[in-house]
Give the backbone structure.
Amino acid sequence: MIGKTLLSPLTTMNSTRTASGSWDQGKDFQTVLASALEEVNRLQLDAHDKTRLMVAGGDIEVHEVMLAVQKAELALELTQTVRNKVVEAYQEIMRMQV
């Protein structure tokens, strides 16, 4: 669910040729990245809100809180992994001789 939520915008980043021969890029990288980060933030806030509700004695089941926390944790781990890979790729490009 989380991987599909975070990665689904990437499938729309296809490049197609227009009738004039120029390339139509679809969504740009910045838009995709921003929407993915917003989704991670939303999951974090949702987990936080559900945790606070449970601690305050609200009407919420423990499994709902645990699921929200795990979703947020997995989304954050995926974000960190992607960030690390992007930094690694950038460093590799900077080491290239021209």
